[in-house]
Specification:
The complex is a heterodimer. Helices cover 51% and strands 16% of the residues of chain A. By secondary structure, chain A is an alpha+beta fold. Chain B is elongated. Classes of the chains: A alpha+beta, B alpha+beta.
């Protein structure tokens, strides 16, 4: 062949891969021969076309042939054939109850296992859904003495950028919130990041429109620019195609929009707007300046250990140069998403967290154990067929594999359902728990990962082994001769081993325990939902007030300085006064927490013995709130004893407090509160430090939220409250909530006016977390309800499984012992005696399960009321409830035996014995 | 009859080899089948069938000479085995038995 008359090289290469080794050379040779012939007949182009057609034809034919070979050899090698799976599908249709009950149970078990695995993986091994996301790293410090992470300083950022070789495109960011004002719209806060331009090189996501930030944007005095997120572009800019070049206001600063990012981009955490971080304008001395989060990308060919080694060596040099600033600080580089975890990174800790997956697997084994019981009962009806097949030469392994295939079909269908449910539940839960103020990092969102789906395949296999292989081994264990005799005589019951008994007992005990837990959780949800404020909460609007701290170094509230606090308080007061002047407004007040909202708490010590004696007191937990003096008046809460706050109670040295009625009822057991004293006890690593100063109770007010009848204190809006005044030394004054009471109309109607006034006072004043006060508990109630419903679903499935298992076994027992029953009755035995012989086994298992479940419930109740002052009446009530509940569950389980029981009564000895003859 | 029945295409391939004689290879087999049947045949199907027949023991093969036209690659030459001949005869017997007595009916249908 000449060079110009060669077949296409790509086609030849494809043939080389598609053809089996034994025919490769000869087939390619034949095709080359045909190619030469075609060149003479059709010319080179025609010959090439025909060669390509032949290549595709040969590839297709031999690939199919190879697949057929594998199918013929592969499955048969492990004793499975397609017929087994066909039979499996047929059995599902033939036994619909088992399919539905068993399939549902397996679906829930696989869903729980997959969901647990997904959550643990996201927490311990988060990965970034970005191009090359596994090579994006974070750099920070680890404080050896405090065992906690510390951010880097501007000096560190510039130093690392200049000197490190193993990490490139090093940048930094800090998260801020700013009012974004577009055109004539009223400003609304957005989650923004002041970030280095390197972020866009590291993430490698091109903009949808315009450009991303560049290094020149970070230069001092360069024009202010912003890049906008996709969602923000759609909501605030109406998806304006001409948005590039528009000027907006961010707080007090005007900036030009230079780019729009594509949907889904939210680096570094969940941001929607990016402005340049001007590191050069921050303090450059070592250890000074704001804390910055630093990121970068591993250099090509470099892995994490090498980067760590370089950073450690570099860190030692810097620590030697500046020992005071870097004492105890160990620089480290780690995968980016892991730097946001609060979980210690030690091997044992991570292993411990991953071991939680074992519980998911154990749960699956227990559930599938019960499904195995149903599969066993089904297989037992085919015992005669199985014994005859074995007698004719079928290997035990063959029969076991057939039953395994049937179970695998059921488990595979259940896995599809379970994974779909888990994916939905995960997305729904993330959305439900996310608020505008506190969303999830972008790498935690989305459905199940490929790793979890692979893990679920393993769970499915395990489920099929437990539900299919285990009963198959039991049913094929009988000696063939004895089995044939039994099968033809129609005699004998099912002998359940200890494991089967344990499965039924554990299932019933778990059902009882978790149903009771679900009831308690549901009551908690109902209690929270039913909590009704003692004031018309639907007429109140709550808004959180925050302010830009331009020029300030720290964003955390705990380190705000005095000058900022003074400015902030003045701004908040001005807002309060101007809002109060609105004719629609009946009252306005400020507080650090409002009624119906979650609040912090503290342990107090009470002066039991009076003002003059030394105190010992009991330790009690209360909620604390800092309020304005007009707080109780705005919330229409009368003072029941003593007095409310006055102007003399404000200021740093103020030591007066007001308590609510619940404080008097539960802590003082109705005794007089006015004139008593309390002090706070603070804890340090579990040990109680020296107590703080005394505070005098000057008044008692009505409960703003009466205590609902919820069994637990978690998320309970009715709390024991101690009120301080704003500005006292006990409280922090940032951020505050503004509560506005409207005379009429929807509270939200005043929001636009609020925003206009706030923008007028200061463009840096941000209003967020806007809500009507009566909606404060709705999300908590929803979460508790969701939790209760989940426990109820699992309990219901466990109960149905238990009942189905009991029914199947007793039914099968009656079928197999029909002749024995007939003989006993014919010989004069009482039917009741026969019933007790047949059913005592299953009912004994039920009784054991009920007893175990009630004991677990009793232990839980005892632990929960251990530290409470609970009287004998309450204890007796709890015991009676437990006993009644156990009796009801015995009755429910006994219902499963009704069908088989009726069949026993209908046995006619003469008919049975005549049929045998 | 204890041997596995031959498919129609398998019979065609074996018969083509018998027509061409021992030592024939893939290209002439394809041409022979196309010439005698008057229809186009996918060469890949012929090669797959040759391989399958060899796995069943109805053919044997060996590597023959190479030529420059084939880029220096050898031919795989084939020959029908005794088992292959017997399978062909059995298939012929089965067909003849099915055809027996049908000629008058078919003549009438023309």
């Amino acid at each position: 062949m000449t060079q110009t008359s060669m077949p296409p090289s790509v086609a030849r290469s494809l043939l080389g891969h598609a053809l089996p080794a034994d025919v490769r050379e000869s087939v390619r040779g034949d095709l080359d021969e045909v190619f030469q012939r075609d060149c003479r007949k059709y010319g080179l182009p025609g010959a090439r076309r025909r060669y390509w057609r032949q290549t595709m034809s040969f590839t297709l034919h031999f690939v199919v042939e190879r697949w057929r070979d594998r199918r013929r050899g592969g499955l048969m090698r492990i004793g499975l054939s397609w017929l087994d799976f066909k039979l499996g599908f047929r059995m599902l249709a033939r036994y619909p109850m088992l399919t539905v009950v068993g399939g549902l149970a397996m679906a829930v078990a696989i869903a729980v296992g997959a969901g647990t695995f997904e959550v643990i993986t996201r927490v311990t091994d988060p990965s970034l859904p970005l191009p090359g996301g596994d090579r994006i790293v974070a750099l920070n410090y680890w404080h050896r003495a405090e065992s906690g992470a510390r951010p880097a300083s501007p000096y560190d950022v510039l130093n690392w950028r200049e000197r490190l070789r193993t990490v490139e495109d090093i940048g930094a960011f800090r998260l801020v919130q700013r009012n974004l004002i577009v055109g004539e719209q009223v400003g609304e806060p957005v989650d923004a990041a002041e970030i280095s331009a390197a972020a866009f090189r590291v993430t490698r996501v091109p903009p949808l429109m315009g450009r991303v930030l560049v290094d020149e944007d970070e230069a001092p005095q360069s024009p202010a620019v912003v890049v906008v997120g996709n969602r923000l572009w759609k909501i605030r800019f109406g998806a304006d195609p001409a948005v590039i070049g528009r000027v907006v206001r961010l707080g007090a600063t005007q900036a030009t929009v230079v780019g729009v990012m594509p949907e889904g981009f939210a680096f570094p955490v969940r941001q929607n707007l990016w402005t340049p971080l001007r590191v050069q304008e921050l303090p450059q001395e070592p250890g000074r300046g704001p804390g910055l989060r630093v990121f970068g990308r591993l250099a090509p060919g470099i892995e994490l250990p090498a980067a760590r080694a370089e950073l450690t060596a570099f860190g030692s040099q810097i620590a030697a140069q500046f020992p005071k600033q870097y004492e105890n600080l160990q620089p480290r580089v780690l995968p980016y998403a892991e730097s946001f975890l609060a979980i210690p990174q030690g091997f044992l800790v991570r292993a411990g967290i991953h071991s939680i997956n074992a519980f998911g697997a154990v749960f699956l084994v227990v559930v599938c154990g019960n499904v195995a019981l149903l599969m066993f009962a089904r297989a037992a009806t085919r015992e005669r067929e199985i014994v005859v097949r074995r007698a004719l030469g079928a290997a035990r392994s063959r029969i076991v594999m057939q039953l395994f295939a049937e179970a695998l079909v059921l488990a595979a269908i259940a896995a599809v359902l379970g994974l779909a449910a888990t994916d939905f539940a995960l997305k729904w839960t993330l959305a439900a728990l996310s608020t505008e103020a506190e969303g999830w990092p972008f790498w935690l969102e989305g459905g199940l990962s490929a790793t979890t789906v692979t893990y679920s395949a393993w769970l499915t296999f395990l489920a099929a082994v437990v539900a299919g292989v285990v009963p198959a081994l039991k049913i094929t264990r009988t000696n063939m001769e004895a089995g044939l005799r039994q099968a033809s005589a129609g005699a004998g019951g099912i002998r359940m081993g200890g494991i089967w008994t344990g499965v039924i007992v554990a299932q019933i005990a778990g059902t009882i325990f978790f149903t009771a837990v679900a009831y308690v959780v549901q009551r908690q949800a109902a209690g929270i939902a039913s909590a009704k404020a003692a004031f018309p909460a639907e007429e109140y609007l709550a808004v959180r007030l925050e302010m830009d701290r331009d020029g300030l170094m720290e964003e955390k509230a705990g380190t705000v300085d005095e000058s900022f606090l003074r400015r902030y308080e003045a701004t908040a007061r001005e807002l309060e006064q101007r809002v109060a002047a609105d004719a629609r407004v009946a009252g306005v007040t400020l507080a650090d927490v409002l009624p119906m909202m979650p609040s912090g708490g503290a342990v107090i010590e009470l002066d039991d013995a009076g003002l003059r004696d030394s105190v010992t007191g009991r330790q009690l937990f209360v909620s604390t709130t800092a309020v304005d003096p007009d707080f109780f008046e705005v919330f229409q809460t009368p003072v029941l004893a003593g007095r409310g706050f006055a102007s003399l109670d404000t200021g740093a040295g103020a030591n007066t407090v007001v308590v609510n009625q619940l404080f008097v009822n539960q802590i003082l057991t109705g005794r007089n509160a006015v004139g008593r004293r309390i002090r706070y006890l603070s804890k340090d690593s579990g040990a109680i430090k020296a107590p703080g100063p005394w505070f005098e109770i000057i008044g008692v007010v009505r409960d703003l939220v009466p205590n609902p009848e919820a069994p637990m204190s978690l998320d309970n809006p009715g709390k024991i409250v101690v009120y301080h005044t704003l500005g006292s030394n006990r409280t922090q004054s940032y951020p505050l909530y503004l509560a506005t009471h409207l005379r009429s109309g929807a509270p939200a109607s005043v929001l636009p006016a609020l925003r206009r006034i706030a923008a007028d006072i200061s463009p840096g004043l941000r209003l967020s977390d806007v809500q009507r006060l009566d909606q404060g508990t709705s999300s908590d109630a929803r979460a508790w309800n969701g939790f209760a419903n989940f426990i109820l679903l699992v309990s219901a499935i466990a109960l149905v499984l238990s009942l189905a298992g009991i029914y199947a076994i007793t039914s099968l027992t009656v079928s197999r012992r029909t002749r024995e029953i007939a003989v006993r009755v014919a010989l004069g035995a009482q039917v009741s005696h026969v019933v007790s012989i047949v059913f005592r086994g299953p009912m004994f298992q039920v009784a054991m399960g009920v007893a175990a479940g009630c004991l677990m419930m009793g232990a839980l109740v005892e632990v929960s009321i251990r530290d409470s002052d609970v009287g004998v009446d309450t204890m007796t009530r709890h015991a009676a409830l437990l006993l009644g509940y156990g009796t009801i569950m015995m009755g429910v389980c006994a219902v499963a035996c009704v069908g088989p029981l009726l069949r026993v009564f209908r046995v006619e000895p003469t008919d049975v014995l005549r049929d045998d003859g | 009859m204890s041997r596995e029945a031959l498919g129609e295409f398998e019979q065609m391939v074996l018969l083509a080899i018998l027509h061409l004689g021992d030592g024939v290879y893939g290209v002439p087999i394809v041409d022979e089948i196309q010439r005698r049947t008057g229809r186009t045949v996918a060469p890949a199907a012929v090669y797959v069938t040759l391989r399958r027949l060899e796995q069943k023991g109805l053919l044997t093969s060996w590597m023959g000479d190479s030529t420059p036209e084939r880029g220096g690659k050898s031919r795989r030459c084939v020959k029908v085995t005794v088992a292959g001949l017997e399978s062909l005869r059995d298939s012929r017997k089965v067909l003849d038995s099915m055809w027996k007595g049908l000629d008058p009916k078919l003549r009438g249908a023309q």
